[in-house]
Amino acid sequence: MAIPALIAGVSEPILSLTDAAIIGNMEQNATTSLAAVGIVTTFLSMLIWVLGQTRSAISSIISQYLGAGNVEAVKNLPAQAIFVITTLSLLIIAITYPLASHIFKLYNASGDILNYSVDYYQIRVFGFPFTLFTIAVFGTFRGLQNTYFPMLIAISGALANIILDFAFVYGIEGVIPAMHIKGAAYASVIAQLIMALLSAYYLLKKTDIPLIAKLPFNPEMKRFTLMILNLFIRTIALNIALYFGTSFATKYGESYIAAYTIAINLWFLGAFLIDGYASAGNILSGKLLGAKDYKSLLELSNKLIKYGIFVGLFIGVIGAIFYYPLGNLFSNDEAVLTEFYNVFWIVLAMQPLCALAFIFDGVFKGLGKMKYLRNVLVFSTLVVFVPIIFWTDALDYKLYGIFIAFTFWMIARGLPLIIKFRKTFITLAQNN
Fold first, then answer.
1. Of the residues 179, 195, 217, which one is the last residue of a structural domain?
2. What domain range is 310 assigned to?
3. In a designed cystine with 154, which of 8, 214, 289, 408 is the match (CB 3.0 to 4.6 A)?
4. What pLDDT, in 10s, does the model give residues 299-308?
5. By CB neighbour count within 10 A (0-12 exposed, 13-18 middle, 19+ buried), where does 229 fall?
6. pLDDT category, 12, cuts 50, 70, 90?
7. Are residues 197 and 321 in the same domain?
C-alpha cells in the first residue's frame, strides 16, 4: 500500500518542483521568477492543505466502516464531501483572485517579484478545485485500501505537467509562443484538470461509489465536519509556520527567497515521499480500529517506526549524494546556490524526524483523533516554532534560523504523537 501511495503523494510537490526547476533555468528574470513561484507555492500549499484535509477525513471514516464490514452505510459520503469542498474552493477563487496583490504583499513581496507572483497565482488558482476533487477521490480509494489507482492518476498528472511545462515556458517555435512564468501556471492547471478527469473515471468505473451528491446528508457528515474543523485549525497553525518561513526569507533578499524556494520545495518532496507510509498508517489504522484489533495496530506502529527511520535516512543519504547537482538543477545563480548549499544539509538531517512525525500524523488521522492532532500542532507552532524563528532572526541567522526552527518544530510535532499512541494502545492490546 505504501509504495503506490508514496508515488501518488508526490504529484503536488512535483508540479511545484517542475515549475521551479524550469523557471529557475530561464534565460531572463530566472531568480525573480523563482522567488515568485516560491511565494505563490507557499500560499497555494496553505489553501490545498486546509481544504485538502477531506482526504484524511474520508479515508478515516471509510476505512473504519470497511473494518467493521459496513461500507454500504457511507457510500454517499464522498460525493457529498466533494460537493461541499469544491463549492468552497470556488468561493476562495472569487475572494483571492482580485486580492492577489494584497495577499503577496503580506509575504514581503514587492516590485517584479510581486508582479510575477500575481501573474502566476491568477492562473494557477483555477486548478484549485480540480486538485481538491482529486484529493477527495484519493481519500475514498485509500479508505477502500486501494492506493494503486491514485498512483496511476498521479503519474499521468506529473508527466503531463513536465511535458507542458517545457512546451509552455520555453515555447515551441512556430507552434506555441514562450510564455515564461505564465506558461508554468497554465501547465499546472491543465495537469490538475487531467488528474481530476482520471479520478472521476476510475472512481466510477472501478467502484460503486457515486459522484452525484444527493440529500439527505449521510449521518457521518457531522463527524466528517468536526474532523475537518479540527484539521482546519491544525492546518492554519501549520501554515503560520510556513508563512513566517517565507516572509522572513523574502525579507532577507531575492537570493535568499529563491534559495528558500528550492530548499522548501525539496523538503515538501521529502514530506510527500514519506507520506506513502503515512497513508499506509492512515488506511490500516482506521481499518484495524474498526475491527478492534489492537494488537495488530500496535505491531503496525512498530513497523512504521522502523520504515519511517529507514526512509528518512535513505532520503537524507540520496540528498547528500546529489547535494550539488540538485542545486544546479534549479538555478545557475551563484548567490542563490551559495545560500541553498549553506542550509540544505539541515533539510536532509531532519528527514528521519520528519518521517516519524508525518507517519504518526497519518496514523492519528486514520484513528479519527483529529482533536489531539490539532492541539499538538497548535502547541508546536505557537510555543516552539514562532519563538525560535523570531529569536534566530534577531541573531541574524537568516536561512539557518528558519530551518533550525523547522527542525525543532518537527520534533515537537512527532514526539507527543508517538508517546500518546503507545501509551493508549499498549494497554488496549494487553487487555484485548
1. 217
2. 225-431
3. 8
4. 988 888 888 8
5. middle
6. low
7. no
